Amino acid sequence: MTINSQRRSLMKALPAAGLSFSVPALAATAPDPWLQAQAIIDHVSKPLKFRKQDFVVTTYGAKTCKLTKVKAWISFEEQDTIDTPVAGSPDCYAAIKAAIKACSDAGGGRVVIPKGDWYCAGPIVLLSNVNVHLSAGAHVYFSNNPADYAKYGDIDCGKAGKLSISRWQSNDCLNYSSMIYAYGQDNIALTGDDWTAIVDGQGGLPFNEEGDCWWTWKGKQKTINSIGQGTTPNFKAGKMSENTENPLNAMSLATVSPQLTEAERLLIQGEGQRWRADAQYLPALSEAGVPLSKRVFGIGHYLRPPMIQIIGCTNVLLQGYHVKRTPFWMHHPVHCRNIVIRKVHCESHGPNSDGFDPEACDHVLVDGCVFDTGDDCIAIKAGKDLDTQYGPSQNIVIQNCTMHSGHGGVTLGSEMAGGIQNVFAQNLVFENANWATNPLNTAIRMKTNMNRGGYLRNFYVRNCTVPNGVQISPSFYASLPGSPIQSKTVATAAGAIVTFDCDYTPISDNVRTRPPVVSNIHISNIKVGNITKDGKTASCYQAIVILGPVASDYNGPQPMPPVVPVTDVFITDCDFGTPVNAAQPWFLYNVKGLTLKNVTIAGKVHDTKLDA
């Protein structure tokens, strides 16, 4: 079956099963939007049903492994001695695959990984009606060798390996498989008895004599004043990475997309050869309309796969386990419906170690999870460039969770070209336990720009605490030449409790033709505490940063589409503690109708309506 026919079959099957993803945006007109939130919770909380039969992986030949101590990266900047399977350990890939197949062939059930240490040098691929369950004390160490994830995919791409249909930072591609993967399945689960049930991506463990690991592939960092995240493990100028020009990529888009006009090609490629780095080349292929079958990455390329990626699936449960040291995003469901992630401990301090990134998904519940991450704790996505065929992310409830380190606690974007709507967050603790060395950058965050575009509407947050504040120094992104937003002046990267950034990393995107639209945001009952660091007692750098779309960033054909301000933001009954910059407690640009009601900042109560 060809790639395109696989996708067509999947897209046809979903509506046939009565699983239409078209849901009206009800939140804006509902008398009480939190009633809609409860309806979402009720809808997705119906227990999944599996046959009462266990398939234990040891029956299919799985054997435990012995461990040894090695030096590895445990974060952007730290190394430590950790456990890893000894060289030559038994590989459980085939046994786990056989157990899942036997379970599926029998009509479903539970595949059990017992207590013990297990080495797996290939992906665990979930199938319909199968619950892969880790017993208490089960620790699955996935191979840290990238080549092991280009061996078993469904698509034979020659020298690039046998690859899987994937999506990388919201662009479709053929790439290394995720460690745990599913495509087009229904009624699936990954569960654990408790947080001693561990899936370990070994993202910081070196795989060659030079000391490179998955995280090395991130390349150079861009954020200015990125505390605890200023470098990339073992990366030095000249090493290959996602941000290094890759000689395997085409010299010109004219080669792979000859239908482009010269003006279109030059706009997409931008100046110089930077666009040929993998992280830029993939979105360029999307902008150029190159089909999935020609977006081949894998061996010879440097796009790290998510740890757990679930594409085009319905009725998904992720519950009760601990995920650690992931190569890239920890969980990435794409175009899924009816997803629950409950009581999962998401812990990885490597580059891009987002905890949970639902993309173009409908009806999602995040409940009772703990996030301690090297990037956003939760980041809701919805496609990038021209890859918006799956539509918006919508009808999402986040509740009863705890956030520690990370860029944003609850984040929307940055890849959101398909739109985000009807998102509810309540009863969260932005604990920020690592505030002294690796602080949470911001608690509530939205990010987009003139490339990522999209819309955000009907976003509701209530009843949250931030006991240790967020990062109390500002972090920045560089601005484009001629922008009214000067570089190193607006703390959009870190430093505010609430950040809405419609000018996110603008220099990263060559095509800037899609102004975002942000409206109907309600934030209430947020209580923020202060910490004392470097002689300053503070909760943040500024309480609120809202940077609306910047019209001067537009570089497409005229006439320019409307560039509208961020509108109808309501912040009520909040205490944001004491900002370092208490003299300027908020920054606003291109904002209309920001209402502050009973909002306390540095002991002063604000009741006002602001435009900028």
From TrEMBL:
<protein>
    <submittedName>
        <fullName>Glycoside hydrolase family 28 protein</fullName>
    </submittedName>
</protein>
<dbReference type="InterPro" id="IPR012334">
    <property type="entry name" value="Pectin_lyas_fold"/>
</dbReference>
<keyword id="KW-0378">Hydrolase</keyword>
<feature type="signal peptide">
    <location>
        <begin position="1"/>
        <end position="27"/>
    </location>
</feature>
<dbReference type="InterPro" id="IPR006626">
    <property type="entry name" value="PbH1"/>
</dbReference>
<dbReference type="InterPro" id="IPR011050">
    <property type="entry name" value="Pectin_lyase_fold/virulence"/>
</dbReference>
<keyword id="KW-0732">Signal</keyword>
<keyword id="KW-0326">Glycosidase</keyword>
<dbReference type="Pfam" id="PF00295">
    <property type="entry name" value="Glyco_hydro_28"/>
</dbReference>
<dbReference type="InterPro" id="IPR000743">
    <property type="entry name" value="Glyco_hydro_28"/>
</dbReference>
<dbReference type="InterPro" id="IPR006311">
    <property type="entry name" value="TAT_signal"/>
</dbReference>
<dbReference type="InterPro" id="IPR051801">
    <property type="entry name" value="GH28_Enzymes"/>
</dbReference>
<comment type="similarity">
    <text>Belongs to the glycosyl hydrolase 28 family.</text>
</comment>
<dbReference type="GO" id="GO:0016787">
    <property type="term" value="F:hydrolase activity"/>
</dbReference>
